Amino acid sequence: MSARPAPGAPQFGLYVPQFRMDVDTVRSLAVAADTHGFDSFWLMDHLLTPGTSPTDVLESWTLLTALATATHRVRLGHLVGCNPLRPPALLAKMAATVDHISGGRLDLGLGWGSVDEELTAFGLGGRSRSRRSRELGETLEILEKMWTGKPFDHTGEAFTLRGAYGLPMPVQGRIPVHIGGAGRILTMPLVAAHADWWNCLGSARHQLPELAPLRGDARISAQYAVGLVTPGADRAQVESAVARRMPEQSWGRPFVGTPGELVELFHAERAKGVELFVVRLHEPRSTEAVEYFAHEVAAVVRDRAGSGA
Asked: Mind listing the domains of the chain with CATH numbers?
């Protein structure tokens, strides 16, 4: 089982939404993240790609299993898993199994499923957003019970279980839970009640001062669209690529700059309480970009934090 960074130490995760990508491409990016010091590697969990025309989308849990066998130290997960796609007992069993395959490196990201058209398209629609939020709360209660390995009953609004149990238990005992979103009514109460981590959407990063007090004891991660301006690169072209692939209305203000400029931007985010920076790079298939960012940005941020600068 990989060692977890100490609380407060800056961490970097690489987010790779696996649409229009084959398995070998995603695997090579995960191996690069593992080799060059990223702390975590994240997939999306959708049956389609929201907002685009039909295209290839690899199923996330099956793909995550392949990544678990190809990597050795990087933690793995989804930002975030779509709760309505799987019954909670099945989800608990899948998570425990991947935790065993990975040697205890799974982090479980979950959300209540905010893309209505996706759920409708695949026969999972018809429930209000508030109902889906309550179902996520029940799922989180059931996961906790399943991971103890002890038989239990559960009677709730959406799920009834009798004599259920989860064996084998996860390698970690309890798998860390990340809840993604920024809704004051439907999401943040779940974060405060159940999450180890609150994953703040890029589009909500400007609300961090107002939302952070609602998270309870959960640690803060946040999502960033990143444009690397490497030596000889055209900054305008990098900015254009970021804007095209990761529009500001979805990803918030992008971080575009040289390594030194990016280090300063992430250092400022640490002052807001963010411990885990989940980045999506503007060159989505480039293992060279993964290596460059890891050594020229992430490592420098960590060294600076370690020195107390």
From this structure: 11-220 (3.20.20.30)
